[in-house]
Amino acid sequence: MMVSLPPDYRPLEDEEFMNPIQVEYFRQKLLRWRMDLIREADGTLASLSEGGILEADITDRASVETDRALELRTRDRARKLISKIDQALHRIEDGSYGYCEETGEPIGLRRLEARPIATLSIEAQERHERKERVHRDD
Hints:
This protein is mainly α. Helices cover 64% and strands 0% of the residues. The longest helix is centred in the middle third of the chain and has 37 residues, at 58-94. The protein is flat, with a radius of gyration of 20 Å.
């Protein structure tokens, strides 16, 4: 079911959580983010494929190598984000988007605005982080 989104729409706390307009708002937000990441990745790929390192000076060569390593890390991060965005889009399709995968409670609009790929409520996320810290300290 396609819902048209008013151009200046922003989700509000006092409307029904994950009503069709909210869902469409987040779907479009995720799709825009995904397109931006793909566009950036294409730019990275183009600059990486511009050939070998021709700089004769060892310092210049090291600088180019460092830039390439950074671009590859950025590209890998973007690839992982795109995968998380795809998972969020799948949750929109199956109706589970916006709800904590641990508690089933609403994640909350402010958290989803800041991190549209969130799968946990703030409380569940904090529990996870506390557990990780405890296990890391072992």
